[in-house]
Design goal:
- This protein is mainly α.
- About 65% of the residues lie in helices and about 0% in strands.
- The protein has helices at about 5-25, 30-50, 70-105, 110-125, 140-145.
- α1 runs antiparallel to α2 and α2 packs antiparallel against α3.
- The longest helix has about 30 residues, at about 70-105.
- The chain is elongated, with a radius of gyration of 26 Å.
- About 5% of the residues are buried.
Length: about 150
Amino acid sequence: MTLTLVLYIAAAGLLLIGIAGIVLHHHLLRIIFSIALLESGANLLLLLSSFREGAAAPIRLKDGFPAMMADPVPQALVLTAIVIGVGVLALALVLALRILAIYGTLDVREIRQSMDEEIAARAGVPLEGGRQAPRSDSDPIATLEVGGHE
């Protein structure tokens, strides 16, 4: 197994762990860290796409340029992505702290429920049942006859 293959497997693993963490977790900090893992996997995959065995940095030497040079553009893109990713991660953590201060929890389900209750209270309407609740018999849309048959 070559080093390149191991790095491709590591990049794919980071991507899969990041996606699974975003989809499966309900805790906001775990979701944020999963986004960071996903970003790291994408950066590694981008760097590996330009990797060449035995390539040197594109720097002029005393006797000229090296025979095989590494492409500096993906490296510059990854460096930029890392800087942007750190900023996004810092913003997400600050927003998570703000959410914790307001709602007292970082569980996404509880935050969503609290937000729904707050919106319903401000609008002056009763909070309906869950998102998957069946329609009641008093609902006029549910009691309409389909196709005009009685």
